[in-house]
Design brief:
The protein is α/β, with parallel strands linked by helices and 339 residues long. It folds into two domains: 173 residues, D-Maltodextrin-Binding Protein, domain 2 (3-Layer(aba) Sandwich); 147 residues, Periplasmic binding protein-like II (D-Maltodextrin-Binding Protein, domain 2, 3-Layer(aba) Sandwich). It is 38% helix and 20% strand. The strands form four sheets. Strands 1, 2, 3, 6, 9, 12, 13, 14, 15 and 16 form a ten-stranded mixed beta sheet that branches. Strands 4-5 form a two-stranded antiparallel sheet. Helix 8 packs parallel to helix 10.
Length: 339
């Protein structure tokens, strides 16, 4: 009798011990796998430890990180090509790294991204006061929230003071007009004896150009009284600005190359504040750059954040990952801007 009782107790103990790893294995098998798309340079930021921390806090979610340097297309390529590229980018993963270059009004209106408003509205733990107000609002239009921001870069005018000193030109300031910018760009450009421009006087990428016109115009290029906001491009002041700009471009006084590469050679740049400091590619003659607000007195924001593809089958899990990444100091502190 005692031996049968001992065997029965031992069997129960083995059964209980066996339940724990079996339950863990079943939980792992039932975990939802979601895809996270980030640029190649972010693969080091989105570390295995960071993903492990998220998965530990969310044991029913597994994350697969994909490196994707496709920027989602540009309007300069034409509307159809830009929308095709935007759709392709938004289809690569459940959660996507986004900034001004790949999250656009056109892409959201085309239905490629998920409106996160229902998710943020029901999230009682989300504190919007944790975000800089302008950055929090920068991914919001058409009464919708399209991404959770993690950091931002400030779009300003950076310049090489030595280049201005060399030709006796006053430094840029927020009171500059388009005519001032036009004059400085033409004087700073390097032209060879044949008349060909060998070095542009100003560089600005297509993504940052809108901030120049927004600053000079003092308002947006849309009708804010309508939803969706309709374009408003028949402003005579805007047309005058664009005419002057078109002449600069046609005369090859402007380069569309931006970032550190342009900062190595071009004396003025409209771009991110990350180009301030010493020029990275010129070790023998490093030159510190200075900065000013854009002509017209404004500045732009290039926020970085995480959006959700409208094609995801797991919106709640994707939102949990986007929120985790947007609130992670390890992620925010590795960007080239203000966290």
């Amino acid at each position: 009798m005692q031996r049968r009782l001992l065997l029965f107790s031992t069997s129960i103990l083995l059964l209980i011990v066996g339940i724990v790893p079996m339950a863990a294995a079943q939980a792992q098998d039932s975990a939802t796998t979601i895809q996270l798309s980030v640029p190649q340079f972010m693969k080091q930021i989105i570390s295995d430890q960071l993903i492990s921390d998220f998965e530990t806090a969310n044991p029913t979610i597994k994350v697969n990180v994909l490196a994707n340097d496709d920027n989602g297309g540009s309007a300069a390529e034409g509307a159809a090509a830009a929308l095709t590229a935007a759709q392709a980018y938004a289809s690569t993963a459940d959660v996507l790294f986004v900034d001004n270059s790949n999250l656009s009004v056109e892409a959201t209106r085309a239905g490629y991204y998920l409106d996160m408003t229902p998710l943020t509205s029901s999230d009682t733990a989300l504190n919007v006061d944790d975000f800089i107000p302008g950055v929090w609002q920068s991914f919001q239009w058409d009464n919708s929230i399209w991404a959770l921001p993690v950091s931002t870069d400030i779009i300003i005018l950076t310049y090489d003071p030595a280049a201005f000193d060399k030709i006796g030109l006053a430094y840029p300031n927020e009171r500059w007009t388009m005519d001032d910018l036009d004059n400085a760009t033409r004087k700073l450009a390097v032209v060879d004896p044949s008349g060909a421009v060998t070095t542009a006087g100003l560089s600005v990428s297509n993504y940052n150009l809108l901030w120049l016109f927004r600053s000079l115009l003092g308002k947006g290029f849309y009708d804010a009284s309508t939803t969706p906001n309709a374009p408003l491009l028949n402003d005579p002041t805007l047309q005058t600005l664009m005419t002057t700009w078109a002449a600069l471009v046609n005369d090859k006084m402007v380069s569309s190359q931006g970032g550190f590469a342009a900062a190595d050679t071009v004396p003025m740049q409209i771009g991110g504040s990350r180009t301030l400091g010493r020029r990275p590619g010129n070790n023998r003659n490093q030159v510190a750059l200075s900065a000013s607000l854009l002509p017209g007195g404004g500045a732009g924001l290039n926020p970085q954040g995480f959006a959700i593809s409208s094609g995801t089958q797991y919106p709640e899990q994707a939102y949990a990952l986007a929120k985790f990444l947007s609130s992670s100091p390890d992620v925010a502190n590795n960007f080239f801007g203000v966290s």
